[in-house]
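User: As part of a screening pipeline, I want to sanity-check one entry by hand. Below is the sequence and the SMILES for potassium ion. Please return the complex as structure tokens so I can compare it with the automated output.
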Amino acid sequence: MSGLAILTAAQMRAAEQAAIASGIPEYELMERAGAAAAEIIWRAGAKRDLLVLCGPGNNGGDGFVIARLLRARGVPVRVAALGESRTESSLKARAAWNGPVEPFDQAAPATQIVDALFGTGLSRGLEDAVADRLSSLTAQASFSYAVDLPSGVDTDSGALLSHAPLFGVCIALGSLKPAHVLHPAAGLFRRLVCADIGIVASDQVHRLSTPHLTRPLTSDHKYSRGLVAVVGGSMAGAGRLAARAAARSGAGMVRYLAAAEAAAGLDAIVTVQAKTISELESSLVDGRLAAVVAGPGLGSDERAKERLAAVLACGHPLVLDADALTLLGSGAAEGIPPGSILTPHEGEFARLGFNLRGDKISRATEAARRTDAVIVLKGADSVVAAPDGRVAVSSGASPWLSTAGTGDVLAGLAAGRLAVSGDPFSAACEAVWLHGEAARRAGEAFAADDLIAELPAAIASRL
Ligand SMILES: NC(=O)C1=CN([C@@H]2O[C@H](COP(=O)(O)OP(=O)(O)OC[C@H]3O[C@@H](n4cnc5c(N)ncnc54)[C@H](O)[C@@H]3O)[C@@H](O)[C@H]2O)[C@@H](O)CC1
Ligand SMILES: [K+]
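Assistant: Here is the complex for your manual check:
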């Protein structure tokens, strides 16, 4: 399942160099970028007056091309530049603009504004006065567009190097960059459009795409569709949420391995009493088990540790979440059965003790490599990383998901999809997508239980 490719600044430069080596001049790429952006702006804003803010590099060059092409279509265009143009292509684009260039610090507001100050070449935050003026002009415009990236964001991490306003549209050029999907940068625009400029962008990192799911075959039965076990612990509610999500994930059967008397909450879920370690061990001895979930409500005491040890020893593909991740602690890189999925949020990820720095994509990728498991590093932007380097990034999930129990639902859902397909990377991607879709369908102020109710409709939408 691959969506749009996501390239770092260095990878984008390499792709650009490859295009240039194949015979497309750099200036031609700039003309294509400007033309693609101008078309998007024309469709949105038509002949409303427009102010283009141009920086000193090639992002500014794109801005001059946009200005020229829209003026030729009858748009009243003004250009304000932040100093002189410094690259060969941007000098050429500036020379081809046959209108005046105002100083940036004196530019008056307009109905439409184009931010072509900085793109992938930004190396430090904007000066305060520049960032303030960009924010003020953008806030006063009815239509606002960021060319390639909102000026002030770090391309590879999505961090803000200086404060930036909210744009209506971000026009990514050639391919997506990490800042288009990682927060906080990914929250700086309402709509994202990726303009094709003829650069071949192939990479292992993609935006999470909508999954293609399949119906069960007529020959299928409950075990062939995937048997999931959910290991209960001291807080039974969390385990029950995971079990109920697994039961609505498309899997064939769910067993709830209860640490206490409580039943699983759905009659279709088979509750197995597994209070003692030996009961738990024997309930995990079943070759038909396709995925085992541990962590939601497991607890963190000695008993929980022993239950986790029994789970790690069972050899079935696991989905480890919540307390299981905390208990794993810095021993996370060892002893995880092949084909497993770990679903930490940032706090749990830090407790796994990898001591990784850098952007979310590289940290998740390195953790996947070290554990030989699929890592779902959760958040407003969730990064799904496989040990072989494949990555899918999901952004734009409902902020209402930040409520108790939604992580337990994701863990159960991931286990269900893992039991269905046996492929941990696609299972994790499907689970993240379905979770986001269920949240979209649930609307506002929902409880985690409501997400589970939306899962069948979310699945039906992808069959
Ligand atoms: N990579 C590609 O394939 C293409 C890139 N294009 C455009 O080129 C852009 C990248 O161009 P550049 O590499 O020239 O980079 P930018 O235009 O993003 O900016 C680089 C310039 O800004 C200066 N600078 C960096 N941070 C600054 C700060 N905080 N304050 C003041 N000056 C600062 C640098 O010294 C350099 O002169 C892309 O974002 C895109 O808009 C397009 O023209 C077409 C194709
Ligand atoms: K920009």
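Points to compare against the pipeline: The domain at 9-202 is CATH 3.40.50.10260 (Rossmann fold). The pocket of NAX (ligand 1) is lined by residues 12-13, 16, 29-30, 33, 55-62, 86-87, 118-126, 147-148, 173-174, 197, 199 (CB under 6 Å).
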